[in-house]
Amino acid sequence: MVSLTFYGGANEIGGNKILLEDKGVRIYLDFGQSFGFGEDFFYEYLAPRKANGLEVFFEFDMLPRTPRLYSEDLLKLTDLKYQKPDVDAVLISHPHADHIGHLGFLDEGIPVYMGHGAHRITEVYHDLYPALSDIGEHKDIRLFGSGDILKIGHLKVQPIHVDHSIPGAYGFIIHTSKGPVVYTGDFRIHGPRADMSEEFTKQATAAKPRALLCEGTRMAYEPPHNYSEAEVEQKSSQLIKASKGLVLAYFSMSNIDRFMCFYNAAKKNNRVLVLGTRLAYIIRSMKDKIKVLPDVMTDKNIAVYFRICKSCTFNEKDYFVWEREFMPRMVTYKDVSKNPRKYVMHLGFYGLMELVYLQPKDADFIYSMSEHFYEGDDNEEQRTVWENWMKHFGIRFHQVHSSGHASESDILSFIKQLNPRTTIPIHTNSPDAFEKAGCEIVKPQKGETLEI
Ligand SMILES: [Zn+2]
Ligand SMILES: [Zn+2]
């Protein structure tokens, strides 16, 4: 008997935490944090402190009370007695927080498998945001590449790269005693590395899957525009060309494809892409893994923005040690405001304060993040603040984005091609929309176990 228990990722977008058990072998498919995690009980400073362990989360049923899973330290004040873990592996599909966010709770001895690129990203984010991005002190991290075969007990697992909005994304084919189980992780077909998703599709089809755990972020949801990554680059380039002033752009710092779009679009229009020091650090740290990335230290179409600090003199003592290496590439608000048409500048919500110093005239802002984020009801307060800043400085606002997730029609043809005996919708708010695939759909519930 093979069983699947859904501790997260059922009837929700993200939070994947799925236990697969087969003849005594136990593996978790991702160990992520749900997007709304804690919002019912925590508010601003009403949140767990360093001294708190898992007792806080158990109190509100926010984490499963599963023995032999969590680290000894975090169980001290709970009613779960610490025992050696009985989990054989945690397989990480990719390094987004909704897939890795709870790794820090796990017993340090449990083997965690992830791709080389994924591991690099977790390290870089930990350097930059030690308090926010912490996967724990795992003693046994095992790195894989596409095409490797992982042997976990009697299970054979094939990780195969897929295209998503972050590097180091994989789907898995898990060969169980009841036949192959395919897990998509998060993926898309319309991205610049569609070839990787096609390879995954081909191999998953050839495996003749018994069950398919398929992400459905965009089921029953179509964004206003269905741009490919190439179209994002093209549209951004047109906007940059037409702009009479500074162009500001906001995109996720872990989205390397999007970085390349803006880099190429800036270069095409003879502008310099200005990165904050954190983004510069990420791009520099990923360079040896992703060869197409430009060299932040020498590329003439890249500059690094240093914010004004205490001394107002841009003295190196004002900045973190890791930031100082970018000082030879420094531009400040003075450079950018003197010659705004020379630059395209990455600027997020928490960087808007820079506009006070930049005093842009005739500027354009290209918002290149998920429409969910900007249009969702939850973000209303933030959106109003954003809009006020745009209005105050007379900045024209544009939205250009390409999703990291496959469209509904791509998901339906993916399922048809794989032709699994059972399809299990995960990472979706619309499991019913999978019925359109016309095959057996089994909808999981949180905390429930399915047998295959
Ligand atoms: Zn996800
Ligand atoms: Zn993701």
Describe the structure.
- This protein has 452 residues and is of the alpha/beta class.
- It folds into two domains: 2-221 and 404-451, Ribonuclease Z/Hydroxyacylglutathione hydrolase-like (Metallo-beta-lactamase, Chain A); 229-399, 3-Layer(aba) Sandwich (Rossmann fold), CATH 3.40.50.
- It has 14 helices and 20 strands.
- It has a seven-stranded mixed beta sheet.
- Helix 4 (116-128) links the parallel strand 5 (112-115) and strand 6 (141-144).
- Helix 4 packs antiparallel against helix 8 (277-286) and helix 6 runs parallel beside helix 7 (256-268).
- It is globular.
- The protein starts with a strand and ends with a strand.
- The model has no long low-confidence stretch (mean pLDDT 94).
- Bound molecules: zinc ion (2 copies).
